[in-house]
Amino acid sequence: MTPSLSTAEPVDASAPTPGRSPRQAAMPFIMVTVLIDMISIGLIIPVLAPLVGTFTGSQADHAFWYGVVTFAFGVASFVASPILGGLSDQYGRRPVLLLGFSGLALSFFVTALASALWMLVVVRLFSGAMQANAAIANAYVADITPPEDRAKRFGMLGAMFGLGFVLGPVMGGLLGAIDLHLPFYVAGTLAIVNGVYGWRVLPESLPPERRKPMDWRRANPVSALRKLNALQGIGPLVAVVALTSLAQFILHTTWVLYTTFKFGWGPRENGWSLFAVGVMSVLVQGGLIRVALKRARPHRIALWGLVSSTLCYALWGAATEGWMMYVVIGLNVFGFMTAAVMQSIVSGAADPQSQGEVMGAVASLNSATQVFAPVLGSALLAVVSHLPQGDWRIGAPFFLCSLLQATALVLALRHFSRDASRRSSPTL
Fold this sequence. Notes:
Blueprint: H1 27-53, H2 59-91, H3 93-113, H4 117-130, H5 133-144, H6 150-178, H7 182-200, H8 221-230, H9 237-263, H10 267-295, H11 298-318, H12 322-331, H13 338-348, H14 355-384, H15 396-424
């Protein structure tokens, strides 16, 4: 792939070694970083819920404590994301990414060694506080990409997230079938590899002249969300982003337990199902989204994605056989495009000096929904955990997701309609 450089001419802020010219920040560098990051995270997805289950005695307790563990991660990430985003605006993206890789590696190894539930809760708090890699990666892409190309570039980044979920979960499922702790050791090793890669290879994307001092008064999630809400033309879409994110995190935090309770799946089966999700994400965000953007504006693709997700969440919840989950994954083409196009709309409304702060605010919003998602999803699963395998009512969390997506669709339709009317109205 030929590096595509923005007109902002970002430079490598790391100290160059003798005989080596500074590298200019470009998409291939950050794509490799995100790929390794997501493989390491994807490795633990099929095995974290079963690991929690080794410390519990019933399905209801399993659902409750898994909710507590994921809740801890979301709370810490909610508080820390705007701080790390602001720090990346002051010191650059590269050092904050390196901090995140170090935190991930430590958290994976400690999780593998955990001997009690409280240790899992504490380490997930730490991991959530250190993990703002997705937000910083998005800010990195915004640094090096003109606004008109950001939807495509965010789609490319999303493809790397998807490819990480192709490789990570299936590896985690296979390794977890051998030993539940093994995927955490492998994930920690990959995080270390990513840290070394970032230190030795990854260029800085934010040149010194575009940096700004950290404003600690705004470095809290409430101020960050207010700033996001105040962006011109974006404010009403904050609710759409929040509802969509909440539905996605309910899906993420309940998928493994849902398929375990409903179909009797184990780490291997869950790994393969998440492999299918990753394949679709790569196909859609790595290729099909470019075709869609040539034929429709981002807001239309966002609307189609919300329609698709509304239907597919309901179908996942209603599935009575495991193979049906794969069919619905294949049907949700536009649903895989929604996050990338919404990200481009929000990023396009922010000035170049505030991309880290704004992406941190988006991450904080996502983290806020990540706080509530396990509470809602795990509570619903606990209520239906006594039902026999195959009972349609076990799909309650997915039916809630469908309702959330339908609400987001209505709000998005109203916003884009009003925006179109305002643009077409003559200026007096």
